[in-house]
Design goal:
14 strands, six-stranded mixed beta sheet, 380 residues, alpha/beta, 10 helices, Rossmann fold, 3 domains
């Protein structure tokens, strides 16, 4: 037994050392892995110091913008400047109008649609504000806004279905369809048809197809209540959604069955801020053996259209109807809109005459100006 003890004791000590050494190494490996895991978790989690670091980054560009350290303007900085200029010259005229309102109600900003043509009756575009002078009651006014943009229009078509149109109604329908083709998506139309009585065939709509189908459903017959139809059209125009408004009359002229008289219509036309155009499908002078009212038709249409800045296009050849309708549509799209603040601030409900004079650029032939002749001042 005494010999065995020395043999066993020396063998156990190295083993214990090995166990301790291996355990120590395993402990180091575990500690290393734990430390690595903690470091990775700390790197992935958002540290508390990130907020203070972000704030200076956000504030630095602002300070540079205020101090003007960046010499190159950004795209966002330049866009607002362009819009301000655009608003002053083009978009402001549209803001002078109110939906459903008229110039008779609000004259803080008087708006005048102007058409300019050359000696060949061709439209003249590209003129500047300096080329126009506006006079109200012979007193020159300062032009505040100027635009030549194509804006949405509210249009009423007044279509003659009286008996005298029997041999002309086909081409007249075709002319109306050509006129509708010049429309923009935001335009709106209504249709008034008349013979011995005027009726609203279609209220305001953006559907040109609906108007076309309604035009095909009516056949010409009876007498002519042209003045009643114009009255109904101007009344319907009060519900328009666009600031720019116009009536297009397709008729062979004359009136022999209206309740309203010529003076009633002229008064209403002066009060309404609506341009009137007419396609006069007149018979030759030698064949106009009809009533005095019917004989006076062409001159009546000329008077009521010209006082609004529109005009009559007389048709001698029925085949020319579609082309003339297209020309009127193009004219409505290529007008100048002049805006001014009347120097006469009196609210006296009196008629004020407007006169537009042109200072044409050098090299151009004599030009003709079409514009409304005046408006009524507010009464209060």
């Amino acid at each position: 037994m005494k010999r065995d003890l020395p043999v066993t004791v020396p063998q156990s000590r190295p083993e214990m050392r090995r166990v301790v050494f291996v355990a120590f190494r395993l402990l180091l490996v575990v500690c290393f892995l734990i430390a690595q895991t903690l470091l990775q978790a700390a790197a992935q989690a958002p540290p508390d110091d990130s907020k203070p670091k972000d704030d200076p980054k956000k504030e630095e560009p602002k300070k540079e913008e205020i101090r003007g350290e960046d010499p190159k303007p950004t795209v966002d900085d330049t866009k607002p400047k362009t819009k301000v200029v655009d608003d002053a010259r083009k978009d402001t005229p549209g803001k002078g109008f109110k939906p459903g309102g008229t110039l008779h109600v609000d004259v803080d900003m008087a708006m005048v649609n102007v058409t300019v043509t050359d000696p060949y009756n061709r439209l003249v575009t590209g003129l500047d504000p300096d080329n126009f002078r506006v006079y109200e009651d012979n007193v020159e006014q300062e032009i505040v806004t100027f635009s030549s943009e194509d804006v949405p229009i509210s249009i009423g078509v007044i279509f003659d279905f009286s008996g005298s149109m029997s041999n002309k109604v086909g081409k007249a329908r075709e002319a109306a369809l050509q006129f509708f083709k010049t429309a923009n998506p935001q335009d709106e139309f209504f249709l008034v048809s008349f013979n011995e009585r005027a009726e609203l065939t279609s209220a305001f709509t953006n559907s040109v197809e609906d108007l076309q189908s309604r035009l095909m459903l009516t056949s010409p017959k009876g007498r002519t209540a042209l003045l009643d139809a114009i009255y109904l059209g101007l009344s319907e125009m009060r519900g328009a959604h666009n600031a720019k408004r116009s009536l297009l009359i397709l008729s062979d002229g004359g009136d022999n069955h209206s309740r309203y008289n010529e003076n009633d219509i002229k008064r209403l036309v002066r009060e309404a801020d609506t341009q009137l155009y007419a396609i006069g499908i007149f018979d030759p002078l030698g064949s106009r053996n009809r009533t005095p009212e019917e004989l006076k038709g062409p001159s009546l249409l000329s008077e009521v259209t010209e006082m609004t800045g529109g005009r009559v296009f007389a048709v001698e050849r029925i085949e020319d109807l579609p082309d003339i309708a297209t020309k009127i549509g193009m004219e409505l799209r290529n007008q100048y809109v002049l805006g001014y603040r009347p120097s006469n601030k009196a609210h006296d409900a009196r008629w004020r005459k407007i006169k537009i004079k042109l200072r044409a650029p050098r090299g151009l032939p004599p030009l003709t100006v079409f514009a409304k002749t005046g408006y009524y001042a507010p009464s209060h």
